[in-house]
Design goal:
Blueprint (H helix, E strand, L loop, with lengths): L2 H16 L4 E15 L5 E8 L6 E9 L5 E4 L6 E8 L4 E14 L13 H6 L11 H11 L5 H15 L1 E2 L11 H7 L1 E2 L1 H14 L4 E8 L4 E4 L3 E8 L3 E5 L1 H5 L4 H6 L8 E6 L20 E4 L2 E2 L2 E14 L10
Parallel strand pairs: 7-8
Antiparallel strand pairs: 1-6, 1-16, 2-5, 2-14, 3-6, 4-5, 9-11, 9-13, 10-16, 11-12, 14-15
Helix pairs in contact: 3-6, 4-6, 5-6
Length: 329
């Protein structure tokens, strides 16, 4: 074997290592709490989201730790997994349920999409406006301006991503953040991840690009606790599949390479729970859910209590390169 061939083989090995797909495996507990259940409540109805196996993520050994009977459902529109229970005569105060599970999350790569197809119904839903993800005249006008001269879906989506990640400020000090209200984002040009990705969805859909909302948790350390959610978005490219983006995380990075990476790629430092906006669950909630990461509780046909969430996790095995822990918001 010649020296030149040895050098080429060494370079190929280094390149393969550098671009190895990263994987994270962990044990986790999702804690859903509904605080301040009113005294005298007769029947408390509770819906809780569950992590799902999909795309780059495999969930196993899921156990709902609760003395009550829970029925598991799959949402037919988005494929979300969730559980429902009716709690008779719950004690006043806080209601809590723990969901234990194992998960294996792989890095999502633009070069190798894991969901390569979509049904006509999925694509139609991903082009439709939601209550807060609007397709107003000003959204359509802005989308047309951003995508002018762009000929491919990738080029159009990239122009929208660049605009959202560079023109919107990550800011949770202005009242009204976190609802994912496209019109508010256009007004104040600020918000959290929900707001960033609502604007991306609106602009993509206005450009004829199917796009969907994804929500879960960031894994911000090897082991730990997270008390806030994180969300991102995916858009569909015919012949390739669903491509992820994280515009809010990109907005917080000063590294051009990181910002470029988050268009089409996601590190495995996150766990997905549900997709979609304006969710209609079964049994039905009083109103469709804006998004679904918190527990939802009702009594007498109206929402009750205040919801809070936490994810406790412990990494049990990892292969590939160490992740950058970028998905922290």
């Amino acid at each position: 074997m010649t020296r030149r061939i040895l050098i080429l083989l060494s370079l190929f090995a280094l390149a393969s290592t550098a671009f190895a797909q990263k994987v994270k495996t962990f044990d986790a507990t999702y804690t859903a709490t509904v605080k301040a259940i009113p005294a005298g409540t007769k029947n408390l109805k509770v819906w809780i989201p569950l992590p799902m196996t999909c795309g780059p993520q495999v969930v196993s050994d899921l156990v709902i730790d609760s003395p009550y009977h829970w029925t598991r459902y799959t949402d037919p529109e988005f494929g979300d997994q969730y559980a429902y229970a009716v709690i008779p005569n719950p004690p006043a105060g806080d209601f809590r349920v723990d969901v234990h599970f194992n998960a294996r999350r792989s890095e999502a790569l633009m070069t190798a999409p894991t969901e390569t197809s979509a049904s006509p119904a999925e694509l139609q839903r991903a082009l439709r406006a939601d209550r807060l993800v609007t397709l107003s005249p000003r959204v359509s006008k802005l989308a047309a301006q951003l995508t002018a001269g762009k000929t491919t879906t990738i080029e159009k989506a990239h122009a929208i991503y660049d605009y959202v990640s560079s023109s919107i400020k990550y800011d949770k000090t202005i009242p009204g953040w976190g609802h994912g209200d496209t019109e508010r984002v256009c007004d104040v040009r600020a918000g959290n991840c929900t707001d960033f990705h609502s604007l991306f969805l609106s602009l993509a859909r206005a450009s004829g690009i199917p796009a969907r909302f994804v929500i879960g948790f960031p894994l911000t350390a090897k082991d730990g606790e997270v008390t806030g959610y994180h969300c991102w978005a995916e858009f569909y490219v015919k012949g390739r599949g669903w491509i992820p983006i994280d515009a809010s995380e990109a907005s917080l990075s000063s590294d051009p390479m990181r910002r470029a990476y988050l268009f089409g790629n996601l590190d495995p430092d996150r766990i997905q729970f549900t997709m979609g906006r304006d969710l209609v669950l079964h049994p039905k909630t009083a109103e469709p859910l804006n998004y679904f990461i918190y527990p939802h509780a009702e009594a007498n046909g109206a929402e009750v209590g205040t919801a809070s969430i936490a994810l406790h996790f412990r990494e049990v095995n990892a292969s590939g390169m160490t992740s950058s822990n970028g998905a922290s918001r």
